Amino acid sequence: MSHLGKPLSPARAWLGPLLLLLGGTCIGLAPIGLRWGLDSLGPQAIAFWRYMFAIPALFLLLIFIERRMPARINGYVIAAGTFFALDIALWHWGLTLTTVANATFIVNLGNVCVGFAAWLFLKERPKPIWFVAVLIAVTGAAALSLGGESGGKTDIRGDLLALGAAFLVSGYMLCSKIARNRLGAMDVIFWLTVTEAIVAAFIVAASGERFFPATLAGFAAPAFLALVAQVGGQGLIIAGLGRTPAAIAGIIVLIQPVVAAAISWQLFDEPLSAIQGGGAGLILFGIWLSQGAARERRQKLASKPSQKTAKDPA
């Protein structure tokens, strides 16, 4: 499944970052679906049904696309799924107490930290340009989060919950990266979702929330999240992780708060100030700049065969 160490065509080299960008955009819609569903279900129940509705869709996709049953689950997938379910539990709770932009920014700090974790555990040392891209993207994310008008809907309790979720994001991304190096993308996202549904069921029971909405219409928001955020968003991110260094992937998915804040501006009366608009621009610039490290890596991989030939003409 892996193509590590092999020269990549330009199209294939850009596939990983493109998948991550599309996945991050889909995940950016997740808080929108959550806000819509809170009138019918609690935040933890919404997360549970997000996973449950996604499982049959992912199973059918695997059967029709791969034409086989799912491969055997491994410990890294279980760990990643547990981290993600706990992350979403804290994040959903935090979203009920603070703004979409605030909660999404804080959680995504974990995506940046995964670059340092990958450096420590996977020996994926980031290029110098990556540190510059991180500084720019995080500065932009901070401006996007903190640059709004005072007296908004922020609450320190929601921010602290989102901070806890950020630590869990790092564990999820790191374990998913390792799992993706051992299993195909479809297998990883399927077993991740199964694990997340099991963990989420215990969380709903512990929280005291009801499992079922009063009417069938209450399932609309979880169904939206299942297709857009879980199958589309998380699936694309898992696929992209198999083709992109974890450090660069963490910056690319910072597109999430930009998407979330832009849509929330229109739907939830959370307008963006000039500072927040500038912050969104910095995030996008940081994402673009991070691709400099990716381009350098791809050029080195592409040059290896020719260097070997030059040294060994015989």
Count the E strands. 0
Q: Shape from CA axes?
A: globular
Number of domains: 1
Beta-strand residue percentage: under 5%
Q: Percent helix among the residues? A: over 70%
Protein name: Membrane protein
Keywords: Membrane, Transmembrane, Transmembrane helix
InterPro entries: EamA_dom, EmrE-like
Explained architecture:
InterPro entries: EamA_dom (IPR000620), EmrE-like (IPR037185). The chain is mainly alpha-helical and 314 residues long. The protein contains twelve helices and no strands. Helix 3 runs antiparallel to helix 8 and helix 4 runs antiparallel to helix 5. The longest helix has 38 residues. The protein is globular, with a radius of gyration of 20 Å. It starts with 9 loop residues before the first helix and ends with a helix.
What distinguishing features does this structure have?
314 residues, mainly alpha, 12 helices, disordered N terminus, disordered C terminus, transmembrane helix, membrane
What's the SSE blueprint?
Layout: H1 10-27, H2 30-37, H3 43-66, H4 75-95, H5 100-121, H6 128-146, H7 156-180, H8 185-207, H9 220-241, H10 246-252, H11 255-267, H12 274-311
Helix pairs in contact: 1-9, 2-9, 3-8, 3-9, 4-5, 4-7, 4-8, 5-6, 5-7, 5-10, 5-11, 6-12, 8-9
Protein name: Membrane protein
Pfam family, one: EamA
InterPro entries: EamA_dom (IPR000620), EmrE-like (IPR037185)
